Amino acid sequence: MDKGSETSAQARTTEGLGRTYDSVLDTIGNTPTIRINHLAPDGVELFVKAEAFNPGASVKDRLAVSIIEEAERDGTLKPGQTIIEATSGNTGIGLAMVCAAKGYPLVVTMAESFSVERRQLMRMLGAKVVLTPKALGGTGMYMKALELAEAHGWFWAGQFETAANAKIHANTTAREILADFDGRRLDTVVTGYGTGGTVAGLGRVLREARPDLKIVLSEPANAQLVGSGIPQERTASGGPAVGHPAFEAHPIQGWTPNFIPLVLQEAIDGGYYDELRPVAGADGMDWARQLAAKEGILTGVSGGSTFAIAMEVAKASDPGTTILAMLPDTGERYLSTPLFENLPTGMSDAEAEIAASTPGYQME
Ligand code: PMP
């Protein structure tokens, strides 16, 4: 019998958290690390850190609250000032949540190619979403945000350059991993990068606290910006001066913009990862589907892609090896994307057969 399907002898109970929260923002972080019971190769301990448990359902809630609160502390963000950011979605959703909770107006620029539910979620959370042409890619939405910020004197969130990004992952994500594996074996952590905040924050802390731990970084097989070894040309503020020549449009939303972010550059220069492994978007989608159907864990394409690499590492590992994969967000954020396209909206043959197996209530 699979480890996860053993019948429990006792009924489940819960105790409550024994506290109340003053704000939704206080529920960010402390996401659960969950064992993979059915998909892991025999003898290998495989875990995922499910960032979908954040209140805005992604890892970017951490970054969003960090950007706003660091800027409140150092005075660069004025009370009531409008905040602007270029984002493929999760950062925008996180920022919209934080801005709603703290009372700041938010404007988000986003390429039209990203999923429609992301726009609607931001609007639901009170933000304004300005779309930019697909053909201009990540640079287009970034340049539009910069233009608007300069023209209107808005606060530029700057997720790709801000020090508040890696800092929050060092202060929260990395500490949580250390606590969850305290006194236990942990051989490898697998993550991808969008801004690079996750890998930079993890690298800063885990390199020192657990020097034997391997960090595996992944990027899309058809957009190997880091793997190409070609340096990013930057402006004086560290932003991209031009798009990176190794970039190609890829299906792993939230990963690898068309430039190497300054935040990620710290991880590259500091040698924060031991291995760089490319992953095909199709494999990522396949593993996201398997995680959902075989483990009950809903994650997006980037989570599936991270998990694909974790499985690759797991299959080549000795028994007893322990691996952790970061799952940045929930699969529910991809309903309108290819992740869900192989699911019929009507009935499959198997479903029709079940329907026909009893006489009543049949579809015409
Ligand atoms: N996956 C998804 C779905 C994301 O939205 C992001 C953030 N853009 C990432 C992965 C990567 O995280 P980071 O920016 O910390 O590198």
Q: How do the strands and helices of this protein lay out in sequence?
A:
Layout: E1 33-35, E2 45-50, H1 60-74, E3 83-86, H2 90-102, E4 106-111, H3 116-124, E5 128-132, H4 137-152, E6 155-156, H5 163-180, E7 188-191, H6 197-209, E8 214-220, H7 262-269, E9 275-279, H8 281-295, H9 301-315, E10 322-327, H10 349-356
Parallel strand pairs: 2-10, 3-4, 3-6, 4-5, 7-8, 7-10, 8-9
Antiparallel strand pairs: 1-2
Helix pairs in contact: 1-2, 1-5, 2-3, 5-6, 6-7, 8-9
The protein binds 4'-deoxy-4'-aminopyridoxal-5'-phosphate.
4'-deoxy-4'-aminopyridoxal-5'-phosphate binds next to helix 6.
The CATH top-level class label of the largest domain: Alpha Beta
What Rg, in angstroms, do the CA atoms define? Answer: 21 Å
Low-confidence stretches: none
- H/E order of the elements? EEHEHEHEHEHEHEHEHHEH
Provide the list of bound ligands, each named once.
Answer: 4'-deoxy-4'-aminopyridoxal-5'-phosphate
Shape call: globular
Strand composition percent:
5-15%
What is the architecture of the largest domain at the second tier of CATH? 3-Layer(aba) Sandwich
